[in-house]
Amino acid sequence: MIKVFYSYDFNNDATRVQPITELNVVRSDKPISREEWKKIKIGGTGTIKKWIRDNLLFCSCLVVLVGEETANKPLIKYEIKRAWTDNIAVLGIYIHNLKCLQKGKSNKGPNPFEQFSQDGIDFSSIVKCYDPDINDPYNDINNNIEKWIKEAIDIRVKYMFSNEYVE
Q1: Would you say 8 and 95 are in contact if contact means Cβ atoms under 8 Å apart?
Q2: What domains are there in the chain, each with its CATH number?
Q3: Rounded CA gap, 55 and 46, in Å?
Q4: Which residue among 18, 21, 88, 93 is least crowded, i.e. fewest CB within 10 A of its CB?
C-alpha cells in the first residue's frame, strides 16, 4: 500500500478533509488532532518544519488538499518544496465542493503549484491538481486517488534528476 502525507489548511479545512484522510485505499498517518497541532505549534516554525520532515519520511506522495486559502499558507509551500526536494511525488486535489458541517462548501482556491517553477517550467504544468466531480466529490476522490497518486509518482520519477527546491 502506498503511504501518503496529506497537506491542508488545518484551521479552515480539517473537518472538510477528514473523510479523505481516512480513506483505506492509501495509507497515511492518523490525522493530527487539534490538541496535538496546538502542542506542535507552541514550538514555533522550526518545530513545525521538523514535524513535517519527520512525517514525510517514507512517504511516496504528498497530497495537497487545496482549499480556499491553501495556496497562501507558508507551511504548505514548505511541504511542497520539501517533498519535491526529497523526491516525493506531489499532487493536488481541490476540496471546495466538499461539505464542512460548520461552513458548507467553499470557494475554489488558487492552484498552489502556480507559485513555483522547475528548470524554467511552470510547476503547475508538471504537478496535477484534480477537481473532483461537483455532484459526488468524495466518491470521485475515493475511486481515483490511488490512480492519481500512481500517476504523480510516475511524474516525479520522470523529473527525478531535477530535485532542487522549486521556486
Answers
A1: yes
A2: 3-158 (3.40.50.450)
A3: 14
A4: 18
CA atoms within 13 A on the CB side of 61: 29
Cα dihedral sign, 137-16-67-41: negative
Q: 50 with 77: CB under 8 angstroms?
A: no
**pLDDT confidence band for 165 (50 / 70 / 90):** very low
Question: How does pLDDT run across 50-60, given as a tens digit for each residue?
Answer: 989 998 988 99
d(CA 20, CA 16) in angstroms, rounded, equals: 8
pTM confidence score:
0.88
Residue 8's Cβ-count burial label (10 Å; 0-12, 13-18, 19+) is: buried
Please count the residues of the chain: 167
In angstroms, the first-to-last Cα distance of the chain is 31
Q: Position 151: which residue type? A: E
Whether residue 70 is predicted with pLDDT greater than 90 in this model: the reply is yes
